[in-house]
Amino acid sequence: MNITFCCAHTQADPWLAGFHMALPHAHVSEWQPGAPQADVAVVWQPSQQFIDEQPGLKAMFNIGAGVDALLRLRLPAAMKIVRLDDAGMAVQMAEYVCHAVIRHFREFDLYEADVAKHQWVQRKPLVRGEFPVGVLGLGVLGERVARALRQFDFPVHGWSRSPRSVEGVTCHAGQEGLPNFLSSCRVLVNLLPLTPETRDILNRETLSRLQPGGYVINVARGAHLVEEDLLALLGSGHLAGATLDVFRTEPLPADHPFWSHPKITITPHTSARTLREESIAQIAAKILAFERGEAVVGMVDPARGY
Ligand SMILES: NC(=O)c1ccc[n+]([C@@H]2O[C@H](COP(=O)([O-])OP(=O)(O)OC[C@H]3O[C@@H](n4cnc5c(N)ncnc54)[C@H](OP(=O)(O)O)[C@@H]3O)[C@@H](O)[C@H]2O)c1
Questions:
Q1: CA-proximal residue: ligand 1, atom 29 (nearest)
Q2: Relative to the CA of 198, which ligand 1 atom is closest?
Q3: Is 36 within the bounds of a domain?
Q4: Which of 19, 90, 216, 255 could hold 144 in an S-S bridge, CB 3.0 to 4.6 Å?
């Protein structure tokens, strides 16, 4: 089996060494323009040139959970796309989101500001029941996040395309379930895939439905959020703040208002990183299953968009 590796922003050598170890029978090399046809590819944000020069690929294994960049390309109709599922990302996402929710709920920003002024101020504890958290997307990452939030006794709601059941989580589904889901929440966590249906889903209309003093945590994709609408709702006071890990333009432009907005906390797309060893082990297992003609977990449905 010939495996070609074509991953943007990724140092190839340690990945190639890992795949050599995990799949000793395979020939693994980094793709270069004009390279011979491979059987399968390991990819992250490959170029259209790569796709056009490798028409005989039987499958592409994405080294991330989101396949939005891949599905924007012109792909052969029969191309199989396999996403990474979890591979160490879910626990990172749970850490990140719980940290953001707790930091907001426990007012740690205000305490930090007091401490900086050498002020000993004890605030009245807020009521946990008044901070229901909603998780948009109850997939591999969203479900883990919802379960983690339940461990801290927050009321948790979840929203998915098809009906789901997660213990302790009030589940809502479909477009018809969205208004009720949003009005049930004060803190909103976005863990949807970016698809034509979900692009711009965090907008003035949807965010206005959150309970007053709403808080937005976007850890999915920047294009889910209409940035001007967030700024307007922070300005009006309907929203209390936001933690954002992903942006419409990345890296975030130097003059972007999010950098210095007092109610916005940003991080540089780091909430759940691809972990190399876990990912190599998972993709190698998927490639072996694919070679044997067995079902492969994490098969993407291009028509659905995720
Ligand atoms: N910031 C980071 O570092 C980072 C890292 C990894 C991933 N991500 C992002 O996180 C996203 C989610 O990852 P995942 O592994 O949890 O994805 P996943 O397993 O595919 O789950 C997606 C969830 O979203 C729901 N959904 C999709 N389209 C919907 C729609 N139109 N209406 C309602 N619900 C919809 C799905 O509903 P069903 O359950 O009905 O299918 C499912 O529950 C990725 O696509 C990626 O963009 C970000």
A1: 161
A2: 31
A3: yes
A4: 90
